Amino acid sequence: MQVSGPIKTVCGTPTYVAPEILAETGYGMEVDCWAVGIILYILLCGYPPFKSPDRNQEALFQLIQRGKFVYDTEYWSSISANAKNLIDHLLVVDRHKRMRADDILLHPWIMSVGQSKPIRNTEELKAALRTKYDTKIKEYTENQAP
């Protein structure tokens, strides 16, 4: 399959679907970053950020399109502000303002999780990650060309 513009097929698991898919305005790789935000939210607390009390799919889709969610204190009080910040930047309704994959890799929560000691030269690491990301995007784009 060759992708020459925004995709317009409505698809996806209801809980994970990005607002632009529901709006049927066309979408690209930004939907994957939305899904990362949904998955991260679920991994950290055990339930999705958007849920309809009676499991009504239309109500769920309206919640997703509004993009309003909360961090219930009972489940989120022990979760770091950096983790919440990352989710806040992923679950953004406007896909143009949503954090991209290369930015996710450079987010402080990602950069610090699992590190036994602080990373000393973050600028060098950021440059290396950005170069790798740009290379992969170029490869992907070239493989999509006719």
Automatic annotation (TrEMBL):
Transmembrane spans: none
Source domain of life: Eukaryota
MF annotations from Gene Ontology: ATP binding; protein kinase activity
Protein kinase domain location: 1-110
Name of the protein in question: Protein kinase domain-containing protein
Coiled-coil intervals: none
